[in-house]
Every structure is written in C-alpha cells, then in structure tokens.
Amino acid sequence: KAGVTQTPRYLIKTRGQQVTLSCSPISGHRSVSWYQQTPGQGLQFLFEYFSETQRNKGNFPGRFSGRQFSNSRSEMNVSTLELGDSALYLCASSLGDPARGYTFGSGTRLTVV
Amino acid sequence: TQLLEQSPQFLSIQEGENLTVYCNSSSVFSSLQWYRQEPGEGPVLLVTVVTGGEVKKLKRLTFQFGDARKDSSLHITAAQPGDTGLYLCAGAGLSGGSNYKLTFGKGTLLTVNP
Questions:
Q1: What residues of chain B score a pLDDT lower than 50?
Q2: A88: left (phi over 0), alpha (psi -120 to 50) or beta
C-alpha cells in the first residue's frame, strides 16, 4: 500500500513569508502527527490530529498551525517565517494507537533565507 | 532538559562488531519505540515495546525495555554496513500523560565501516 506522502519535498522561502505543507497519510490511518527536526533540537512534536480534531499540541508559537480534512489529509501552516524555522518537517500517520507505532513520510525540507 | 537521553551520540565501528545503544529517562513511558533514519528520509519504525522487562528480537537486533519503563537498549550483533543510520528512541505516554505524541531522544548516529 502507498506510504505517507509529503509535498513538497523541498521549499525555499524568504523570512516573513508563510508556507503550507501537505501530508497524505496511509489509507485507513486517521491520525496524523507533525514533527520538526533540526540538528540542534532533534525531533520535536508540533501537533496531532485524529478525525479532524487536534488531540495534542507541542510547545511551538501560534505561528505554527495545522488542520486535518475529512479524508484524513493534513496541512501544516507556518506564518511570518523566521530563519530558525529552517528544518525538516515530518508527518507521521497511525491508526490512532501510539503503541502500534507510526509511519513517517520522507519530510519537507524547508529553508528560510 | 532532554527527557530521553541517548548514548552514545556517535558510534563508528567495523563490520562484524557488536554494539549497544542506550536510551534513558527519569520519567516513565507507557511504551517506547525505536526508529532508524537514513539521510534525506523519515524515520522507519523498528520495534515497539510496551511491557516493563520486555525483550524483542528482530534478526540481529535485540531491544529491551527496562523493568521500570524508564529506559531501553538496542543491541546489534555482528553489525553490517547496511545498519548505518541514525537510531532514535521515542517514548509515548510520558508519566501517564497524553499518549498522542512521541518524545524523541536526539539519536545515535551509527557508522559501520566495511
């Protein structure tokens, strides 16, 4: 079956702009989580959605937001980009039970200049 | 403060050697997962351990969850170049809290030289 698809793979934006990243989970998976990965901080949790509802949110500023659609696809938006937002953004899908593990996409590499 | 401490941070060994990677926390997790990540890709799930004291084997990889569910280890026997990658431990359900997020360690970058 198809894996988790993230688009685009690479993105270059200018400071102050906004960006929208997309994630299509594995068919049948209703949970989508987003993580930010940087060399200094590692993987940090942004938020998790299940059946269009945000169940958990990490410690990121309000510039980071997300949503999930009825087909379980999810988008993540970052407004007023800062240089420090440069990172690999990873999406993970699951059936909803964390104990069964997550399937990650290949990520979107965002560079803010 | 890093909730999950992984050690060592870097490990470079020769093919055929054995190694152990550690993942430690002062907090209890309801489950712990190990992932391997290769450059330019997302992490790939290797195993999930749920019960304190649990041991799971995946070919040459052995995973152990501590009795108190605060720590875990990954042991690789007879490492091969294909084992090269970033090994990440991740905990769910920190101290009985929300299960709906993973807390990651910073990872162990393993290089196996032929």
A1: none
A2: beta
